[in-house]
Amino acid sequence: MSQDPITLVSKDDKEYEISRSAAMVSPTLKAMIEGSFRESKGRIELKQFDSHILKKVVEYLNYNFQYSSINEDDDDIPEFEIPTDMSLELLLAADYLNI
Amino acid sequence: MITNKKIKIDVPEKLGLSEKSFEQSWEIIKHAIDHIYGDDTAELSFEQVYRTVYTIVLNRKGLVLYNKLKTYIIQKLSLLRETICKNSARDYEMLETMVRLWETQCNCFKIIGDLMMYMDKVYCKPNRCLEVYDMCLDLFRVEILHKCSSFLISALISDIEEIRNLGSLDSKHTNLWKVIIGMMETLHGNRDSFFLTDFEPVLISATEEYYDKIIDIKLLTPIDSLEKIKQLKQFEDVLDSSFLNADSHSKLKTVLENVLIWGKLSDIIEDLTYEAMELLDEKLLQEIYDLSSEEKYRFAIIEAIKSYISKSAIKIPLKDGSRKKGQNAITWSSEVVNLFRKQHLFLKSINFGSIQLNNLAADKSIAILEDVFSMYFSKEESLSSEYFSTYVDYCMKRAKDNDVEMVTIKQDLLDSTRLIKLLSKKDTFEKTYRKQLSRRLLQQRSVVEIEKWTVQMIKKVLGAFFTSKLEIMLRDVSLSSEILQGFKDSMTNSIEYLSFVPQVLTRISWPFQSSNPIDEIVSLPPRMSQVLAGFEGYYSSRYKERVLKWAHHLSVIEIGCQFNTGYYEISFSVYAGAIFLLFEDYEELTLKEIYELTHIPEEYVKSLVISMSTVPRCKILKKSSNSGSTKFSVNYFFSSSNRKVKVPVIAGPVLSHKSENLANHNLVDTYENEIIMVLSATIVRVMKTEGRLSHQRLLEIVTKQTLPLFDVTPSIFKRGIQLLLEKEYIQRDADDTSYYHYLS
């Protein structure tokens, strides 16, 4: 399996790069990457999400990946900020990606 | 939350819901599954399928999709099933196909499961139905495993048996079995895995049957069978560990033990053990013993060991007869000791593991031997006790202050004491031992140090109570020599030519009857009586309150005498010596004259004189018949090959006849009296602590306490009680006569 970063594609064809390991935080993405489907080549189209949502998703995946290994009691973990107006859409994306 | 500030939330335009109909969506999924089964997913978009499932589930069509999927998988599986069941190939190939199918199916199920991840989360969990992957596995179980189970199981078993027949491991086969068993363990119905419910019982019974048939013990010698069984067991062990989990492995092990060891080996276990014992092959015995950890099995072996030893013990000839009794006793005992020693040495090297025997000795080999020998002795009863005492006597007499021999004799004695512990009639042993010990001590036939040591050893195994009298006897002897020293020192005019060794004995501790009546009246030659009187004086001045009585009949006198042929030292009983000394002053004497001079009863004089004048070895007197009266004189032509001559004590015919019956009767009597004395002492001890006891309970306690010494018979017990009632140590309860009170 290659260690190339994964490209996530949004509705308006904007591309976001994310490291393979960070993408694996989402079981859905993990299944896509590890399977033998078209997505395993490293390009995953998530056409139902707007680019700003996807951007936030990528941000979260990185955030989660970065801090998941750290003890939760640690004070150093910064709050992950979610703009209120995006909350519903992000909720849907999270449900979809199982994160 | 602050509510007066309005927050705007963007509403997604279309909540991911597509307008596609369910049918269209299903087509997409079906298409995907087909591709998965065809192992051709490279062009397929996971995202598309995932989104389809997502949409369907969001549209609350989860149940429909779930069922649809189920039917479709069933369809797929039944198609595949045909390929297996139709296939009438050899067992191994059948297994191979099965494994391939299982592995590919698992893979497919996994992918389908991934695609349906959203459904698992949103539909399956809340509705409590199997997740897609598990549902597929379950379908596999129902559709493939159950429907092909008979084929599969028989194929697997016959393949296993084939390998067993070959007798060599084949990792290709075992790996295959491992996968199949792994599959069986994964798939489970309501409770237990298919492996547990369907396969394991079959495997176990098949194994049992297989090994039951494979070896016929009757055609092989015991040793060969053992080898064969060991080999089979080892192979099966390795084989099982290569493809079974630990649980089933141990189950099969038990089965194997049952079949091979119980079913087959138990018939010959006795022969085998005997063989090992015969060859003194500890390795073999250990091997046999370790074959199974089953307690039943180990007991069987231990029983066999016991029976072997007791058989060899019985083989030792135990002759009972008055003739050569001493010799018989010595040969028998030394052989018994040797057997014990040999088997102990042998069994010591065997590790018996942790097995609970009746006998609680820490050393299992000792425990076994003790069991065997105590059983053996109990068969022989008092004879063995008597013989053992005689054996110790023999060892004692052999022991001189010679270091080399001393070590072996000590070892002999040590081993003897171990066996003495097991004697069933210890009281007989004690009685005989005391008699022989007294003889040894008085005649100075043994080394006192060793006597003391041996008594200590006996004390260790039998307890202080048993040896108290023996210890007093030994103490008397030591004390006597001290007194003698004191006496000698006190004597101003020492009598050089007469060496005098008194033994002051505590009467109750020595196994003698009260003193011989002759001792009161006998008159000894003046030189002797002079010494005795001197000693009496010395003793009573030292111990005023004690009474000293001479027991001449126990003593020995030694006289040096110059005959024509040479100088001899002759040892006599005191009476005979006194008679012989008369001839210092008289040339010739008749029996009557001797009687008058010595006051020894005439009949007894006669027998003493006869023993001195007729026994060839010590014919120191000669008889001459002159004008009707028989006269005796010293036989100056006496000659002997040894310088030391012993005059045997022949009990006078008349006196002995009378006294023998009397003595026999007396012996039983004294023995019983002794028992009653000990018994009443025990009763008093018990009553003193308990205060009030019922007859039955008292009998139980007393029996238990005196068990190492003798068996309490009810009649003796009653006599003991009677005695104590008379002496008012105890009293019957006024209300309930079966109770006794202690009277302080």
TrEMBL record, chain A:
SUPFAM superfamilies: POZ domain. Residues 6-64 form the SKP1 component POZ domain. Transmembrane segments: none annotated. Keywords: Nucleus. It is found in: Nucleus. InterPro entries: ELC1, SKP1-like, SKP1/BTB/POZ_sf, Skp1_comp_POZ. Signal peptide: none annotated. It comes from the Eukaryota. One of its GO terms (cellular component) is nucleus. GO terms for biological process: ubiquitin-dependent protein catabolic process. Its main location: nucleus. Pfam families: Skp1_POZ. Belongs to the SKP1 family. This is Elongin-C. It comes from Saccharomyces mikatae IFO 1815.
UniProtKB/TrEMBL annotation, chain B:
It comes from the Eukaryota. One of its GO terms (biological process) is ubiquitin-dependent protein catabolic process. GO terms for molecular function: ubiquitin protein ligase binding. Pfam families: Cullin, Cullin_AB, Cullin_Nedd8. Residues 383-613 form the Cullin family profile domain. Transmembrane segments: none annotated. Belongs to the cullin family. This is Cullin family profile domain-containing protein. It comes from Saccharomyces mikatae IFO 1815.
